[in-house]
Design a protein that fits this description.
alpha/beta; eight-stranded mixed beta sheet; three-stranded mixed beta sheet
């Protein structure tokens, strides 16, 4: 890691135009991410759709029999309203679908797309009404005023009901676009009512066409507004409520920020602003505290709580921008390919020292470090495929948690627990000599990361929690107790691997080669007997947990999870018996920094051997 060096003083504030150029310029690196979104109330749209479509049929028949353009245009308008509401309802349903390997941002933009299509349809309807009205000036039609007035009055009541229903959801641009349709209908009903009354008492047929044009022009104004707003959103424009230049200036004014560039502000889904950018700092040691100040400022002043910022050392950037010719040959870059190292850790309760093994991939001088921590009976080799894919961008470190793999076994088995594991990981990060790390934790590794990330001044800047949460489902505990610590000894390796693969069937469907890579390293031969790599005594503290201790542990984990202030990606196996969908929903509700992805066809836990699963991790950590 490069130590910070002295740098020139800050420049004077630039003009708005210059500030925009500075903020938007691209230097090294980029960032991309997404967050969870809120959806509107689909039941409102469903009820409005049923009412609107039913009455449109009645009004069309009455308009045809009465010969009224105002009534027919209103009926046609209501048919398009029904189509608009149906499209809006479909968009609501689509927008609730979770992110996937092919759509990592989710489907939040479906609502804005539906609003845009609805607005285009309204423009076409306005053009038809005006054209038909002009035709009727030259060829007047006989209109039954009494029928028009009665049907229009009923339609007015129906439209008021539908408008009242839709007005309850004011946040969704999609619902507001549908509301514009209905308000146009309401105006059309008023126009038809007035037209019918005037024709009935005076016989002036032309008023039918004049009022139709007036309604069309009123509808046009609202339609253009929705069209502009949805277009702006789809083109990833800066949210209309946010001043881009002010955001950049406020970021630059935060104590510790030397410069801001590659700044982007947009909406991931309606009313969900997001921000990414690069921040230049003098020292990475100050980054965790600086990030907290930035998050608080952005939320308070601009209402932005979905933030991803990449810190960069000023000295590093200056070296890149001003390369120095040096005739001295440089040593070839050292790249690791799974080399094993050890770090000496202190056991709790002053009971001595133990060694924790870890394997590494990538450039050890890379300050971007990804730590991957395995589950209860697994080891760091689980992440070999992921590490090989990520080591171009990260120095990937995969420890064997104490009591597993190449790490020491503890003399006191009661120390096999999260507190000891977190202490060991803290020692490992200190050994790596970095100020920030990214964290990938599967099952138990997710719990370790959850506690570590929730601690004050944690070095974790981003955490992927793979199929675990603060609440562990009882059924999964029964399954774990059926094999953890139980006798496992076979004279034939192939037989041992077959049994182990069967135990791990919930990981998903894998080829024989993938099973060998995943479970082969878990087998060890001692005295011609093939057994598992871990200390059977890890089950002792696991089995000692009673309902009272389990509840206290769950409450403690929730407190740690609530305290996490960095981006969180929760990955759940679609058939997981350990992490329920209800627990995921509670995690998303309790921590605004979290989003979730479900991997279907997998139980506990996704192995991240498949390219599409690795792509999910790569996108999140990018």
């Amino acid at each position: 890691m490069v130590d910070p060096r002295s740098s020139p003083p800050q420049a004077a504030p630039a003009s708005d135009a210059d500030q925009y150029s500075l903020l938007h310029i691209h230097k090294r690196g980029d960032a991309a991410h997404s967050h969870r979104r809120e959806t509107s109330n689909a039941s409102l749209l469903g009820l409005a759709l049923a009412i609107t479509f039913s009455f449109a049929i009645v009004e069309a028949i009455a308009g045809y029999l009465a010969g009224s353009l105002a009534l027919l245009s209103d009926a046609a308008h209501m048919v398009t309203d029904a189509a608009a509401l149906g499209l809006a309802l479909f968009a609501q349903i689509i927008s609730r679908r979770p992110p996937s390997a092919r759509h990592s941002f989710g489907f939040g933009r479906a609502e804005a797309l539906a609003a845009f299509v609805n607005a285009i349809a309204m423009l076409a309807l306005v053009a038809w009404i005006v054209g038909e009205a002009i035709t009727r000036f030259y060829t007047p039609h006989i209109v039954d005023g009494l029928t028009v007035a009665i049907v229009a009055a009923i339609g007015l009541v129906m439209n008021i009901i539908v408008a009242t229903i839709l007005s309850r959801d004011k946040k969704s641009v999609n619902t507001r676009a549908a509301l514009v349709h209905v308000m146009g209908d309401l105006l059309g009903s008023i126009a038809a009512l007035v037209s019918g009354v005037v024709i009935y008492f005076s016989g002036w047929m032309e008023i039918d066409a004049w009022l139709s044009i007036l309604v069309a022009l009123l509808i046009l104004k609202s339609t253009i507004s929705i069209l502009k707003e949805s277009y702006h959103f789809l083109m990833e424009g800066v949210p209309l409520s946010i001043d881009y230049i002010a955001v950049g200036k406020d970021l630059h004014a935060v104590k510790g920020v030397r410069a801001v560039h590659d700044l982007h502000v947009w909406e991931m889904s309606p009313n969900q602003p997001a921000l990414i950018g690069h921040i230049e700092v003098d020292s990475l040691r100050q980054w965790p505290a600086l990030m907290r100040r930035i998050n608080a400022m952005l939320l308070e002043r601009h209402g932005i709580d979905h933030v991803t910022l990449q810190p960069e050392l000023v000295s590093d950037l200056q070296d890149d921008d001003n390369p120095v010719n040096n005739s001295t040959p440089t040593a070839p870059k050292l790249i690791h390919h799974g080399e094993r190292f050890y770090v000496e850790c202190a056991s709790s309760n002053a009971s001595g020292l133990h060694r924790m093994a870890y394997h590494t991939w990538g450039d050890p001088s890379n300050p971007r470090v990804l730590i991957c921590v395995h589950g209860l009976t697994r080891r760091g080799s689980d992440f070999q495929t992921l590490a090989e894919a990520m080591c171009k961008d990260y120095y990937v470190v995969c420890p064997d948690v104490v009591g597993r793999g190449d790490s020491d076994f503890l003399e006191n088995p009661m120390l096999y627990g999260i507190p000891q594991y977190v202490a060991d990981m803290t020692t490992l990060v200190a050994r790596l000599n970095v100020t920030s790390v990214d964290w990938f934790g599967t099952s138990m590794g997710g719990l370790i990361g959850m506690v570590y990330a929730g601690m004050p001044d944690s070095p974790i800047r981003r955490i992927l929690i793979n199929d675990v949460g603060p609440r562990i489902e009882p059924e999964s505990l029964k399954r774990l107790s059926s094999y953890v610590g139980q006798p496992f000894a076979y004279s034939n390796r192939a037989e041992a691997l077959t049994i182990l693969n069967r135990i791990c069937a919930s990981f998903g469907s894998h080829t024989p080669e993938e099973w060998e890579r995943l479970n082969g390293p878990l087998l060890r031969e001692v005295n011609d007997v093939w057994s598992l790599h871990y200390d059977p005594k890890i089950v002792i503290p696991f089995a000692a947990v009673n309902p009272v201790l389990a509840k206290a542990g769950e409450m403690a984990l929730w407190n740690h999870f609530d305290a996490i202030t960095v981006p969180i990606l929760i990955v759940r196996g679609g058939d997981s018996d350990l992490l329920s969908s209800a627990t995921v929903e509670e995690m998303l509700r309790r921590n605004p920094h979290a989003r979730s992805i479900t991997i279907y066809g997998v139980g506990h836990a996704p192995a991240f051997l498949k390219p599409e699963q690795i792509a999910l991790a790569a996108e999140f950590f990018s």
